[in-house]
Amino acid sequence: MMLFFQIIQKLDRSSFNKLVKERQTDKFSKGFSSWTHLISMLFCQFAKSQSVRDISNGLRSATGNLNHLGIEKAPSKSTVSYQNKRRDWELFRDYYYKLLNTLGQQAYRKRVKFRIKSKIFLLDSTTISLCLSLFDWAKYKTAKGAVKMHTLLDHDGHLPAYVNITNGKTADNKGAYDIPLLKQSVIVADRFYNDFSLLNVWDSNEVFFVIRHKKTSYSKA
User: Fold this and answer.
1) Does the residue 220 lie in any domain?
2) Which domain covers residue 130, as residue numbers?
């Protein structure tokens, strides 16, 4: 919880309150403010909560630290569920871009500098599990749903430059074909992107790349 508190301290609450006032998202909040909503959903992500019950119980177990997070009490699961359906999601989108302008610039100043002048991007993917009974379109395995998120990370700001979301079965190299790349940039990726057809496309579009070799098995003579 201490680490979570340190992360929350980086958030600019004054700019968030300004957005809340502009969008009037606390007008019918019934004691569950937009800030509490934000903290609850961030806790959901960092604690890898599987349900609104996990969010409520997790925050309730940290009662002594809630004041440090800027909230008075842990919300009930029904309150979180209700506000997830009712509150304007665009508030959090706008706040994301506010943070991108401030925190993104801080990350840019702290970046590791290389001698090359080309723009550097990092490419990788991750599989996100989904409940198949709720998302029947996201078929992955017999009893499991998932999507795969192919992310192009800007090395300068350590923030995503582009995200391509596909079904969970899509191979890393296949998901990379649909990611637009900047000419003269350098793509750094692992061996799963060591696909000659893909690399030929990049080369034809004047994109440089650094890819790990695939493991090669040698047979004994």
Assistant:
1) no
2) 114-211
